[in-house]
Each structure stands twice: as C-alpha cells, then as structure tokens.
Amino acid sequence: MNLRGLVSVTGKPGLFKLVGQNKGGFILESLDNAKVKTVINLSNTKMATLEDITIYGEEEEIRLLDIFETLKAGELEVPSAKADGNTLREFFRQAAPGHDESRVYSSDIKKVISWYAIIKELPLFDEETPEPISE
Predict the structure, then answer these.
(1) pLDDT in tens, 85-105
(2) Which of 25, 110, 115, 127 has the CB geometry, 3.0–4.6 Å to 81, for a possible disulfide?
(3) What is the residue range of 106's domain?
(4) Distance separating alpha carbons of residues 92 and 90, to the nearest angstrom
C-alpha cells in the first residue's frame, strides 16, 4: 500500500494528495471527483501524512497503515461511517485490537472508515510502498 503523499488537513473533510509547493505553502489536490486544488500554509493549518498518523493504543500506538492493511485483507465487514456508536466500536475492536477505548472516539473511527472508503478505490492502494531514499 503506497499512501505516500496523501494527507489529512485539520478543519477540511476528506483526504488530499500533495502535488507541489510554492511560496504560499503546499499545493494539495482533493481526492474526490472534483479534484479541487488548494494551497495551505502550515503557519495557520495543520497537515498530517497518512503514513505518520497513529491511533492511541493501550500499550503502544497503532499505525493507521496497519489498520488499513487489516481492512484490505477483507476479513472484516466495514460498516458505514454513519453506523451507531456500538457498531463502530465493535468493528474497531477487531480492526485495531488493543486500541485505547477511552481515547479513541466514535468520531475517530468514523474518520478512519471514511478515509478507507476513499483510498481503497485508488491505484496507490494496491502499489507497494517505495523504499525510503537513503543518503
């Protein structure tokens, strides 16, 4: 799964692809059908790559990519992001065993489900992650 360059922006729904950088900030393209390009400035907006996002765990943090790999295996039925809290929590106990239930909220689970729905349709989802560039 090659999700390098995919980011989440605080305060903006959905996911974005990092397409460039200019004097004003980073140029992002939405992953929806509209393909809207936006420039964000990191001085007033926070951005996180999907590779760097983790979920609170009881013992150690759980990488978002590991959760996506579990979902990609297809053994779990992914509920709608609009499902009730109990359904979401039961699903997440299987998708991310060992997550800290007191610090991972239903809104977090909904976000993971909605992001998964976006990325599973992308060609990047089935690509291998490129090796980091060593100097």
Answers:
(1) 999 999 999 999 999 999 999
(2) 110
(3) 54-125
(4) 5
